């Protein structure tokens, strides 16, 4: 049975970060640099495994708590201006999950330590790996939610986060207002930056026998989007 609030703690091994995912995360690198990348990863691996502490959770809202109208999603009377791209995917959902996930702050500290030691190449590589590990944490949370929904033949939409696909990052604070304080150990700064930095938040839609659509990268101009990198 799906819970209304749920939180998970994962191990680094559960994220299944392997060599294939390492090279995918650095696909903009020349393949000539892959041997160096692999060498530095092996050097960083003990620290990554020790300091990556994945935590993820969600809050579940059934249909009576949500409404959709003209690019607007309302959850418990809090309005989110999703914009047309996200609205197109979510408008057929009957239920909504608000989620957050993080790998904690220890890897961020390791990045800063490497910078202070002048090892900017290792710091850059570790920082990007940490970003990938957050996304893998979100992927694992998605699997957990979908497995719980399988009992009622519900499917999830793609996940969407403030700051992407035309959804303003300024609405992050509204999102967090619907979650318990410091949920999963994450809080917001005055400028709506998540702390720890290596964190992700957003929403899923869910509905009976919902057909999941592809991301609309062809009509989105956000060059920084991690989904665009995989195209």
TrEMBL record:
Pfam families from the UniProt entry: Met_synt_B12
Domain of life from the UniProt record: Bacteria
Gene Ontology molecular function terms on file: methionine synthase activity
Cross-referenced InterPro entries: VitB12-dep_Met_synth_activ_dom, VitB12-dep_Met_synth_activ_sf
AdoMet activation domain span: 96-206
Protein name: AdoMet activation domain-containing protein
